[in-house]
Amino acid sequence: MFRWTLLFMMAAAALAQSPGRPATEAEIKAMDYTILPNGAGLPKGQGDASSGRTVFEQKCQECHGEHGEGQAGKYPALVGGIGSLKSLNPIRTVGSYWPYATTLFDYVRRAMPYDHPRSLSTNEVYSVAAYVLFMNGIVKEDQELNEKTLPQVKMPNRDGFVPDARPDIKPAASGRPAH
Amino acid sequence: MIDFLQSRRRFLALAAPLTGLVSCKKTVPSEIGAPLSAYGARSPQVTSVRDVRESATPGTGSTRTPLQDLDGIITPSALHFERHHAGVPSIDAAKHEILLHGLVEKPLIFTMADLHRFPSVSRIHFIECAGNSGAEQAGNPQPDPQKSAGLFSCSEWTGVPLSLLLKEAVLRPEAKWIVAEGADACMMARSIPIEKALDDILVAYSQNGEPLRPEQGFPVRLVVPGWEGNINVKWLHRLHVVDQPSMTRDETSHYTDLMPDGKAQIFTFPMEAKSIITRPAGRQKLAYGPGSYEITGLAWSGRGKVQRVEVSTDRGQTWQDAELQAPVLSKAATRFRLMWTWNGTPAALQSRCTDETGYVQPSLDDLVRVRGRFFQYHCNAIKTWFVHEDGSVSHV
Description:
The complex is a heterodimer of chains A (179) and B (396). Chain A is mostly helical and 179 residues long. Chain A contains 7 helices and 4 strands; from the N terminus they run αβαβααααββα. Chain A has a domain at 45-156: Cytochrome Bc1 Complex, Chain D, domain 2, CATH 1.10.760.10. Helix content of chain A is 36%, strand content 5%. With 396 residues, chain B is an alpha+beta fold. In chain B, the strands form 6 sheets. In chain B, strands 5-4-13-8-9 form a 5-stranded mixed β-sheet.
């Protein structure tokens, strides 16, 4: 009798289980695209700028230009602008603005080429990331990037970001209305 | 009509057909009207639409809400602004799932049916694109409310508090951020601090009483009250609990705010207090000559409730308190109104919002003085409309 009661209680508990089912390791692995700036999440693989040049010419150049210069108002420049951020003509590119090389890998892997996202192999992503960094003078042409070395690449604007400083315009500046 | 002394472009659009009916001396038809319909449509005389801006990459870009044509605080779902980074995906809700994993005790997968088993909540919140009014800051004032500030809309959202899903999965102590990812072609992803996730974020499946529109994230999206539009991830399919932000493209390359000193502010989430007069406004006309007009518009704050809206008709020399239409809700649009007697001389109309934190909406000059012209995002400066002697209203 006690056994039946226990079974009944277990069944009731199962029925009352909250919504959602446990995710398996395989399900998580299939969907997990997160890459952190410390390199966590980077897949095993490698590439350098030499191999990346071919990928870039075939898959990227049509929009981003032969030298990664982009097309004004249409496709962003990937190269140049380093040192321009303080000027009256700041140019924000991967080279001049992006703080982490991992972001470049992550974005290319998940979203590029625009019309065929996630069509590049892991090695092609490492390669083309290396080529974009090479065009910016950040890595050498034969420098291998992989899951260990990519997070170590120091981007020129790595220290260029500060936390939200708002509210930065104090009410005093505007003045309160006289009533 | 005689005592209805208000200038409304929409009203004028209606006036012509009405006049036509009157001239037929037949305002009530004797023949039977149109049949029942399974899903209603607006009158063909109402033609207000979103302002569509095409881009070189099909599917990317934005449309703007026709703020000047709206009443109250709710944006009709069909007029809610859009901002997509890789087009609108077509998702089968019956097969759609959200994976919740990372620094949790129990990684879980939720179907849409699962989400509907949780207790639901409905709340009215605005969503504003971080880039709204960016042209104003860049020194290019826009000619009407839609073009100036139309990347702003307000809806009633229904869904499950994100905190409930996190409770099911049980957060580990080292959980600090959540990466939210969409199922659009570019798998747009943003990192969100865990404190906000536990506070007021909704995993929303309904907008204004019906399932989300595809362009608003069908079948499920995040609504992150008061925070920049981009982080309200649409087509949500993955939530990854982590110990640090992922530094995705859309929180580094984009949606960061470059200051005059060359440094950029990052994780600038709340949309600060802002308001705009929507009538009379640019491209409208005070059509009845000198006399009484209602000045009305919308105010909001990403930090809470609107406490006060002041209106000036002399470009900020003097201010008058506008009436706030109830309900005044936190992180929602608030409608304001002020009756004004126009004396027929040039005027410059402005509105200024103060929120419950005491923060006052700045002038464009003050904002540019601190942030420069390249801040690009989060422009909440006071907008000016110029009334000319002939009653026309413009942005310059």
